[in-house]
Amino acid sequence: MIVKTVLMLLVFIAPLIIINTGIVGSTWLLFLLYIISGFGMAGIGMGIMHDAIHNSYSKNQKVNKYLGYTLNLIGANASIWKIQHNVLHHTFTNIEEADDDINPPFFLRFTPHTKRYGIHKFQHIYSWFFYGLSTVSWVTAKDFVRMVKFKKMGFFKEKPSFSKELYKVIGWKALSFGFVLILPMFMAQQSWWVVLLAFISMHFVTGLLITTVFQLAHIVPTTEYPLPDENGFIKGDWASHQLFTTSNFSPKSRLFSWFIGGLNYQIEHHLLPNICHVHYRKISHIVAETAKEYGLPYHNKHSFFSAVGQHFKMLRQLGRIDGLKAG
């Protein structure tokens, strides 16, 4: 984890330092450096901050706290993401409205319960473009939208708490955008709009990687989308719910698993989020055997590309058919 942390931070920061020295004269080199930084950003998001905010990076909570700020460094916010991901997504996985991961804009349909529009018929084609833009939306507007939403849900009960957090969010974003975008506009030997396009290309790499990896775990034909009963309860226990709504993929690719922070073992992560991802592969056999013992599903796609194919299929079905299996 230490080696990965140092490496991913370097891959993210070093190209930006080179850009900010003012020595980059060619457009293609500017784009290349930003794209390399995008891979580092994705590595930080999936392999460092994810464990840190789950308190599974280290037994030392201060280490987890400060490494969680690496999410702030790349333009998002650790406090807001902790509510959205740790609390809501991990508690109410694949439950419409409660799980924000399956509540996209109207032109995307991720559950059988969402109203279907004509445009959804083509979402299996155009979704990938919007996946690439997802982190641009995240670091600019989505954090503020979620703050307001979470305040209404009771997560910021006192006004000083909300205001203080808002100032922190603005401060971190100003620091990140200043280093990643504003300073390069002055220092790079390129027009401001060229730098902006290179910045967007960086985010496109990050957004496409991160969003695709997370979507493959929950939006596939084998996963379910349960609805609460009239009393607001979900059938079954929490652990079983995670097995019905989550899927693994590409379990044999160690290098790929290393880069994406073990997120190909989503079942293990959802059941045991307090365990560092470096242990998922070893415990996956125990989890699979236990699921079989109790007659519960253990969804697993043999490769990344087969999982992509299944996600593509699911997007197409959701775009054309009402009343799919909902769990």
Question: What labels describe this entry?
Answer:
globular; FA_desaturase_dom; oxidoreductase activity, acting on paired donors, with oxidation of a pair of donors resulting in the reduction of molecular oxygen to two molecules of water; Fatty_acid_desaturase; 327 residues; transmembrane helix; 13 helices; mainly alpha; membrane; 2% strand
Rounded average pLDDT: 94
Radius of gyration: 20 Å
* Estimated helix fraction: 55-70%
For the sheet with most strands, the description reads: 2 strands, parallel
Number of helices, where a helix is a run of at least 4 consecutive DSSP H or I residues: 13
Structural class comes to mainly alpha
CA-to-CA gap between the ends? 37 Å
Strand content: under 5%
- Tally of discrete structural domains: 1
Backbone shape: globular
